Automatic annotation (TrEMBL):
Keyword Coiled coil: no
Pfam families attached to this UniProt entry: LRR_4 (PF12799)
Record organism: Rhinopithecus bieti
InterPro entries with a match to the protein in the record: AN32, Leu-rich_rpt, Leu-rich_rpt_4, LRR_dom_sf
Listed SUPFAM superfamilies: L domain-like
Family named by the database record: Belongs to the ANP32 family.
Ranges annotated as spanning the membrane: 102-123
Phylogenetic lineage: Eukaryota, Metazoa, Chordata, Craniata, Vertebrata
The protein's name: Acidic leucine-rich nuclear phosphoprotein 32 family member
Length: 124
């Protein structure tokens, strides 16, 4: 994803003020997340659909991120970083990626368990 696209999305806002970013169809350089820094402290929604993302290795800490659209990319693994980098993530769309082995998404069990726990706790 080009820095130019990030600048356009930001407009006159500081990264610390941004709660939502959409980079759909903006191709990533070498399949990596580039230009997205941990200065986006208030980011709650991120959409990166169809950007040819193959790796989450460069993922910055996004502690307030709750919803992430990652559909139609070429991700096949490396999802374990999500628990550390995005601890409040409650929705993740990985449809249309290259995940072929169920063990790749086992690390995401934590998120599903947490959602289930919150759902049950709120009912009683």
């Amino acid at each position: 994803m080009e820095m130019k696209k990030i600048s356009l999305e930001l407009g006159n806002r500081a990264p610390e003020e941004v709660t939502e970013l959409v980079f759909d169809n903006c191709l990533c350089v070498n399949g990596e997340i580039e230009g997205l820094k941990d200065t986006f402290k208030e980011l709650e929604f991120l959409s990166m659909a169809n950007v040819e993302l193959s790796s989450l290795a460069q993922l910055p800490s996004l502690n307030k991120l709750r919803k992430w659209e990652l559909s139609d990319n070429i991700i096949s693994g490396g999802l374990e970083v999500l628990a550390e980098k995005c601890p409040n993530l409650t929705y993740l769309n990985l449809s249309g990626n290259k995940i072929k082995d169920l063990s790749t998404v086992v690390c995401l069990f934590f998120f599903f368990f947490l959602l289930l726990f919150c759902f049950l706790f709120c009912l009683f």
